Amino acid sequence: MISILTRWFHRLASPVWFYRIAGKLLPWLWALFALLLVTGLYGGLVTAPADYQQGDSFRIIYVHVPAAWLSMFVYMVMAVSGAIALIWRIKLAEMVLVSCAPIGASFTFIALVTGALWGKPMWGAWWVWDARLTSELILLFLYLGVIGLYNAIEDKRMASRAVAILALVGIVNIPIIHYSVEWWNTLHQGATVTKFDKPSIHIDMLIPLLLMAGAFKVFFVISLLLRTRNELLERELPRQWVKQLVEENAND
Amino acid sequence: MTPVRKKRLLLILALVAGVGIALALVLQAFNQNMMFYYAPKEIKAGKAPANHDFRVGGLVVKGSMQRDKQSLEVRFDVTDLTETVTVSYTGILPDLFREGQGIIARGKLLPDGVIEASEVLAKHDENYMPPEVASSLPQTPPKEAK
């Protein structure tokens, strides 16, 4: 069992194999993404009832919450790839690491902007310096730091290692974001879905939210595969398999 | 796992643990400042700063709201279900502001015990449901004012 797992691990780490399998997966992922997005948006904007307090304004939850979840999830993926890159020195893990950063930064940015748009009518303020909002802003700066540091170092293998350490140090921010609403008094509400009790959201509102979260996650996988394939081609440009690939595509 | 890799793994774990502990200590030290607002109970106990702005959070007491006829000034009581403080505010209140709602006001404590607020924000809880469901629920005080 272990040997099968390790063999699979090493095959996945092989650039050529990864490039081909990712290419085969992409059309299926696009289809799944379209399906989840259409059903999720229809459910969220049409079939879900208006909230008893916030009326129709609550519907921004269908963008805000999935983006915020993903902003943390992408960071976890990035940090774990960083650890793999540092321990096993697998090149593919380095590429996943650097490919995660712009995607995660975008999700964080979306979460912050939609949060501000939601906060102004409901709370009465675009922005407040409470623990949840501040820790999410720090997350954005961590992503920007990763992007900046990677581009500042010429040697890409060295850059990846430096970035991996930064990503791992920043991981302490993730539990802070998640538990900020419990540990401290915040203006931001407490957890609605991700808690041990049953979710405190009506089932008709919850299902579209989960569909949208699924859509966002699939979209993340798609963009990660695209970016990683790109990074791979760029780094392996002088290699034989890339030249072969270019010739194959030229013949099509 | 080869010894070299094991060593790297331990180094990484030590790094994350070290940063985590350092941050936990810092947060512990700044715990009071991380609180976005004070509850009326804490204000009554004299924990609120006397000479600069702070925030008070709690529920608006039903039937306590008084509007001034001539200006935008409003006065209302805020409670955490144990203690109550009075807040006065001049300006436009957010959409979600109503009696029974959780709010956060920023301002100064006047000598007569009234908080003169320069900003009032509405806090909403983590419950989402359609109006029909909300009206069929038994009336219980919201739990957010802890």
Set down the secondary structure blueprint.
The complex is a heterodimer of chains A (252) and B (146).
Chain A: H1 2-12, H2 15-47, H3 61-88, H4 91-122, H5 131-152, H6 156-170, H7 173-183, H8 203-235, H9 240-251
Helix pairs in contact in A: 2-8, 3-4, 3-6, 3-8, 4-5, 4-6, 4-8, 5-6, 5-7
Chain B: H1 3-29, H2 31-34, H3 40-44, E1 54-60, E2 66-67, E3 73-79, E4 84-90, E5 102-109, E6 115-123, H4 131-136
Parallel strand pairs in B: 4-6
Antiparallel strand pairs in B: 1-3, 1-5, 2-3, 3-4, 5-6
Quick overview:
The complex is a heterodimer of chains A (252) and B (146). Chain A is mainly alpha-helical. Chain A has helices at residues 2-12, 15-47, 61-88, 91-122, 131-152, 156-170, 173-183, 203-235, 240-251.
Q: How would you describe this structure in keywords?
A:
heterodimer; A: about 250 residues; mainly alpha; 9 helices; B: about 150 residues; alpha+beta; OB fold (Dihydrolipoamide Acetyltransferase, E2P); 2 domains; 5-stranded mixed barrel; elongated; disordered C terminus
